[in-house]
Amino acid sequence: xxxxxxxxxxxxxxxxxxxxxxxxxxxxxxxxxxxxxxxxxxxxxxxxxxxxxxxxxxxxxxxxxxxxxxxxxxxxxxxxxxxxxxxxxxxxxxxxxxxxxxxxxxxxxxxxxxxxxxxxxxxxxxxxxxxxxxxxxxxxxxxxxxxxxxxxxxxxxxxxxxxxxxxxxxxxxxxxxxxxxxxxxxxxxxxxxxxxxxxxxxxxxxxxxxxxxxxxxxxxxxxxxxxxxxxxxxxxxxxxxxxxxxxxxxxxxxxxxxxxxxxxxxxxxxxxxxxxxxxxxxxxxxxxxxxxxxxxxxxxxxxxxxxxxxxxxxxxxxxxxxxxxxxxxxxxxxxxxxxxxxxxxxxxxxxxxxxxxxxxxxxxxxxxxxxxxxxxxxxxxxxxxxxxxxxxxxxxxxxxxxxxxxxxxxxxxxxxxxxxxxxxxxxxxxxxxxxxxxxxxxxxxxxxxxxxxxxxxxxxxxxxxxxxxxxxxxxxxxxxxxxxxxxxxxxxxxxxxxxxxxxxxxxxxxxxxxxxxxxxxxxxxxxxxxxxxxxxxxxxxxxxxxxxxxxxxxxxxxxxxxxxxxxxxxxxxxxxxxxxxxxxxxxxxxxxxxxxxxxxxxxxxxxxxxxxxxxxxxxxxxxxxxxxxxxxxxxxxxxxxxxxxxxxxxxxxxxxxxxxxxxxxxxxxxxxxxxxxxxxxxxxxxxxxxxxxxxxxxxxxxxxxxxxxxxxxxxxxxxxxxxxxxxxxxxxxxxxxxxxxxxxxxxxxxxxxxxxxxxxxxxxxxxxxxxxxxxxxxxxxxxxxxxxxxxxxxxxxxxxxxxxxxxxxxxxxxxxxxxxxxxxxxxxxxxxxxxxxxxxxxxxxxxxxxxxxxxxxxxxxxxxxxxxxxxxxxxxxxxxxxxx
Length: 884
Fold this sequence. Notes:
34 helices, 26 strands
C-alpha cells in the first residue's frame, strides 16, 4: 500500500523524479499503459431499448397475446384498445425513469478540470485527464485533487473528504509514513490525497499513484456500473400474478374446449368461446391502473419533499423494514456546532454563555479574533470548526467584522499541524493582546496563569489536571475541544509564553433536531434504523446514543472488525448491529447486502460520493437534495428536497398507503374478471347461449372497471398504517383471506349476471326455458335483450362492488360512503355511460344491445345492489365491525 512506503520508495517504484518530474516520452508511454485519467463511460441505452425494457413484464406479455387473439377473432377494435393500453403504460414508465443511470456522468463532472504538475523541470497547468502515475502534482488551497496522490511535502495541508469518507471536518495531511501491517480506512490515510476531494487550507507536493478507474472514486464508479437492478416487491408480486393469470387463461381455454367437444358442440364455435373466456380472465386495465396510481403517488410525495425517480420505488418504500442511514449530513447537520464551554473550573452548556463577565468576553473574543474563517448570514467560508466558534459570537450579537475593527490584527503565527496552535496579535487602544487557540495539550504548556472569577491566578498543577480531565470528558463524548489563552504583549516579548489560560469550547456535528422523534416513529412502525458512517467509532456511538439508536458500544462494528468477517458471519451479526463506523464504500455495499440477505427490505440514505454504491445496492436508495452530491442523487431512487430524515418516514407512510390502495385495485379487478369467468363458464356448463359478447367483456374490463379501480388507488390515507408492522414482501396479493373474498365476490357477480340473463329471456318470451334458445343467433331479439340485461348487471354490480373493496373489514358506513369522492364519481360516471351504451342509436348497434324498459331496469338495480348488501351483512356477522 502506498501509505506504508516512504516518499523516496514511491518515487523510485514509479520511476519518477521529484525535481524534474516525468519527460514527454515517458508520459506518452504511461498514457498508452494506464490510459487517460478519466472514468470509463458506460454504454448508454438508446431510447428504443429503454422503451422495450418497459414491456418486460408478464402481464404485458399476456396483454399482447390477448391483442393477437383479438386480431385472430377479427375483433380489431379490441386489439387496438389493448395495444393502446400497452404502449401508454410503456411511455409513462419511460418518461418517469428517463433520468435514471446518471451517476456515471455526475462522477465525471467531479473530476478537477485543470491541475498543476511538474514535467521536465517545469511547472505546467494541464487538463487533469492527462495526468499519469508518476507525475509530480502541486497542491494548493481551493483546488480539487485530480487523482489519487501520495503526499511528499506538506505545509498546513487540510483536505475536505466528507463526500468520500463521511468525515465532517477537513483532515490534516502530511507526508509521514504510516507504519502498520494492516489495511486502514481511507480517512486514516493521512499521507494520501484522493481524487475529487477539496484542498481547504495549506499547500503541498505529491506524486500521482493511481489514475482513472484505479482511483478510489474509480472503484466507486465501477461498483455503480456493476450493480444490477433487482425487481421490487411489487414487480415480483405482479410478475407472479401475471403467471397465474396466464396459466389460468390457458387452462380455461383447454377445459372449456374439451368440455364442448365432449358435449358435441361445433369445434370452431368452441374455439371462439374458449378464447373469449381466456380474454375475460385477463384484467386489461390492471397494468395501466397500477402505473397511474404509482405516478400519482410520485406527485403526492413531492408535496412531502420527496422526489421519487422510479415509479416502482413508490410502493417499495411501504415495504421497508430497515433504514440504513449515513451519519454526516443525514442524521447530523453536517455543521460543526459548539455545545459546551469551560470557564472558572466548570463546564457549562453553550446556551448559558453571555457577554457580561470579563472571562466570558475574553473567551469569546479570543475564539473570534484568533480565527481565519468568516461567517455571516449570506456566506460561510473557512474551516468548519472555526466557523462554529464565530457563530457563538453571532448568536450573542458579537460579530467578527465589528470586533476586528475594535481589535485590529497586528501580527500572527499561522496554524501548523505539528504545533496544532494558532496565534494572532490584536491591538486595542494602544494595548497589544496575543490570543492563542488550539489543542489543549499543547496550549496549556504555554500558560502559567488562569482567569478565575475575572481575576488572574497562578495555574497550579492541580488546576492543570482538572482542566485536562474536563477536556478528556468532553472528548469521551466525541466533542472536539479547542482551548484559548491570552497575554498582554510588550515589544520584545515572545507571543507564545507566560500566557493566561482562559477556557475551552467543545463542539460536534450535532444530530438533526427532528431525527430522534423520527427514529422513535420508525421503531413503532416496526422499522429498524442503522447508522453507517466513515467517521470514528466513538463519535458514531455517541451520536447513536443521543438519538436512542444504540445503547452501548457492543452494538457497533468498525470497518477493521468487519474485514475479519465472512459474508455469513456478517449476515448473522447484522440483526444485532446498529452502528457501523469507519467503513469504506465497499464496506457499505457489503453491509446493505448482508442486511438484505436476512429477508429485509432495505432503504439506504446518504449524501456523499462514498454512499452512491450502497444507495444503488439497497432496495431504496435515498439521497439528500440540498447537501447531496450529484453522484448520490444519480444513484438514488428517491431524493429528499429538504434533507430531512423525517421525510423518509413520511415517504414510507405514503408508500404503505399507496401499496394498500394498489392492492385494493388489483383485488377489485380480479373479482370482476372472475365474475365474467363464472358467467361464461356456467353458461357453457348449463348449455345456455353466450350471455356476454366479447365486446361487452372488453368494455367492462377497460372502461367500466378501470375508473373504480383507479379511484380505489386514490383512497384516503389510513391514519393507523404506521401502527402496523411492515408487510411481508413474499406474501402474494392473493392470500387465504383475499382469495376467499375475490372467489365469493366473483361467484356472486357471475350468478347475478346469469340471473339477469335468465330474466331477460323471461321478460321477452314469458319462459325461463333458456336452453331452447341455444340455437338462436346472437342477433335475435330475445338473446340481445337478455345479453343487454346481463351486460348491465355485470357492469353496475361491479361498480357497486367497488364500495366493498375500500376496506376488507370495516363497513362503508363506518369509513364514510362519500369520503372517497373519486370513487363516487367513477360509479356515477360508469352508470351514465352504461345507460348511454344501450340507448344511443348506432352505439347500441355496435355493442349489440337494446334499450331497457322500467321492469328491466328495476331488476338490474336490485341485482346490482346485492353485492353491497351481502358484503355489509358479512362484515356485520363475521367481523363485528358495528360493535367494535
